[in-house]
Amino acid sequence: MEKRWLSLFVENDIGVLAKISGLFSGKAYNLESLTVGMTEDETVSRMTIRLISDDETFEQIKKQLNRCVEVIKVVDFTNSPIHMKELLFVKVRKCSKGDLDELFRIAEVFGVSIIDYDKESVLMECVQTESKNNALITLLSSDFQSIEVVRGGSVAIESISITER
Amino acid sequence: MQQIRGTSLLVKALQEEGVDTIFGYPGGLVTDIFDELYHQDDIKVVLPRHEQALVHEADGYARSTGKVGVCLVTGGPGAANMVTGIATAYYDSVPLVCLSGQVASSLIGDDAFQEADIVGITRNICKHGVIVNDRKNLGRVLKEAFYIARTGKPGPVLVDLPKNVMVELGSDEYPDKVNIRGYKPSTKVHIGQLKKAIDLLKTSQKPIFLIGGGVNIAGAQAELTKLVELTKIPVVTTMMGKGSIDTKHSYYLGNVGMHGSYAANMAITECDLLFSIGTRFSDRVTSKISEFARNAKIVHIDIDSAAISKNIKVDIPIVADAKEAITAMLNYVNEHETAEWLKQLETWQAAHPLTMQSNNGLTAKQVIDHINETCQDAIVVTDVGQHQIWTIQFLELNRNMQLLTSGGMGTMGYGFPAAIGAKLGNEDKTVICISGDGGMQMNIQELATAVAEELPVIVCLFNNSSLGMVRQVQTLFFEKNYSSICTRRRKSCPRRCSGTSEQCPPYSPDFVALAKAYGAEGIRVTTEGEIGAAFDQALKNTDGPTIIEFIIDKDDLVLPMVQGGKPLYEMILEY
Questions:
Q1: With b meaning 16 or more CB within 10 Å and e meaning fewer, what string describes B472-490?
Q2: Which of B103, B300, B451, B502 is deepest in the core (most CB within 10 A)?
Q3: CATH number of the domain at A2-80, please?
Q4: Chain A contact present for B540, CB below 8 A
Q5: What are the tens digits of pLDDT across the range B300-350?
Q6: For chains A and B, what is the number of CB pairs under 8 angstroms?
């Protein structure tokens, strides 16, 4: 069982998102995250999907997706050089003065922005890989009591020259 | 270019697609469409008595003619009633275009009267589903619907038609061509892969062909027969593949699977090459997967790439239409030396031939034997249950005898309406429906449709006062705890019944009287000697349907049987 990434080109029509997610739920495939948005062609949307499965099931999932009339193309990103980032918002509340100082330091070290704050709270905006977001959340949850996490799921595109994940 | 209403474009589309019959049940959301249909004479509009039966009728019509079956219902409850029929068609790859009425676009989402998100409801049981939100798209959507339904692996397509779009004026053009960027079915066979498969065939000692419904759908029966005769390799079929080769052919071993013949199941178990065409390896066929074809290399030819390597590991996958694949194979195959293997198969056949185990006089097999002896050119349609399996086991099929059955979904209530659809599509053929007393009652109201359309369908109704297949499972695996399977049971009966017939209340309904109440004919048969006369009488009734009710013993079993989860070679052969 491994993490896999797919990029789907789909028709930009009502119901397509429901169809794809319905396929995953109907066949009990393990969908972890799904993002979708319009491309440079307004009739085409692009989805980035992260899922967990074994090899046989993954082959089956790709075939089932290809079968959908609204799916134009299925691209397997699992082993491709890609750029992939996830948007993460973290709000930390009930901070002491010391907490605030530490949070500013953490943001600097981890290369994330603090975009909003008051005397007791801080809002971080992080656009980085999923694993870096995971690490940051783990750190913040262990050190701070009151945190609120909103994650968007990863969006990916093929690299031109370098590989990052 | 003229401006015409959506309803007119719809009728034009149906005509351009060569549709001569549609099955329609009206309602508030489709009154405009029915008004348009009233004024034309090219397309016959059949009125069933329930939308579920409506879809089964279109399904039987499609399976028996090879054309796309067309359904038209109103929104809300009408559309919801289609669900079972659509699922039945989806699981057996039947081409249907299902048109449903929808509330006006401005009301969608407001929980309007008879509003139902039928596209959402049927999403996972349709090949494709779409709502026509814009009048401009109507022609293209309909063209695409028919194309998607009938190409590649066929299936049902749902088109939802909002009321306002159907009365709106717009283009009268019906497109010539289809261009769907996400759907480009290819049927061409990869010759390289095919040759690899044939090489494997050449080195095998115990090869077997496993043939599924795909060969019947592709119309490749003649090619298959040639292939078998050229290679001298024996054939087994799945339920849906039955009839792909003449059942009397010397190389045909019978059906494989849960109720497969002993020889066929042993052949699968011991073969060293399983060459399968047009099947999707349902659990009914494989039973315990780890033991299925345990010694064999597997070649899998199927039109649906998703069906390949889905349930079982395949050594050589080939995505292709069955007819194209088999035709290509004929150029490369040779006669195969299989004498020893054939001898082994004969031993198995002799050891446990298919028989009917019964205590009492009249049996389903006797009736099916009569059909075998007297019908040369007919379409037999079954419902679901023990009678279905007995039909699969004992009915002889050839190029003039066709069998329609709900294999993938096993939908009770399918048989009679599908027989009606088959008769409407094949006026000159005898159509016989074989049903149980349970399934017949699920769409009994279609007697009215058959009488109205003057269809001489013959219904062989096997009445054993039970939901027989479940009862059999309870007999074999649940210590005869007959829970909710007695169709004769009344409130006055004891809570748990040991079931001796003398104490039982009369069966309700009296099917013979019920048939007559509908204006059909009804005959009751209780002994073997009466079978011939009953059929003769039924065949004389050329104006309407006849129900022949055969009273059979509830303790009759379908054997062999493989218990769920057990390997195919562990068959229950007698009880």
A1: bebbeeeeeebeebbbbbe
A2: B300
A3: 3.30.70.260
A4: no
A5: 999 999 999 888 999 999 999 999 999 999 999 999 888 999 999 999 999
A6: 43
Amino acid code (one letter) for B421 = G
Identify the bridge partners of residue B71 per DSSP, sorted by sequence position. B23, B98
Contact call for residues B440 and B414 (beta carbons, < 8 A): no
Beta-strand pair B96-102/B156-162: parallel
CATH code for A83-158? 3.30.70.1150
C-alpha to C-alpha distance for B379 and B433, rounded to whole angstroms: 8
Cα(B551)–Cα(B366) distance, integer angstroms: 12
Reported as type and span, the H/E element at residue B321 is none
Q: How far is it, in rounded angstroms, from Cα B299 to Cα B380?
A: 31
Using a CB–CB cutoff of 8 Å, tell me whether B127 touches chain A: yes
Paired tokens of B117: 């998100």
> What ipTM is given for this predicted complex?
0.89
Give residue B549's identity as a one-letter amino acid code. Answer: E
Angle at B509 between CA B504 and CA B513, to 5 degrees: 125
Question: What is the value of pTM for the model shown?
Answer: 0.95
Q: What is the pLDDT of residues B175-187, one digit of tens each?
A: 999 999 999 998 7
Active-site residue list of B:
51, 113-114, 163, 469
Q: Within a 13 Å sphere around the CA of B471, how many CA atoms are in the beta-carbon half?
A: 23
- Token pair, residue B6, equals 């959506």
DSSP assignment letter at B514: H
User: Could you tell me where in chain A the CATH 3.30.70.260 domains are found?
Assistant: 2-80
Separation of first and last alpha carbons in chain A: 19
Instruction: Calculate how close chain A gets to B130, using CA atoms only, in Å.
Output: 9
Residue A109: count of CB within 10 angstroms of its CB: 8
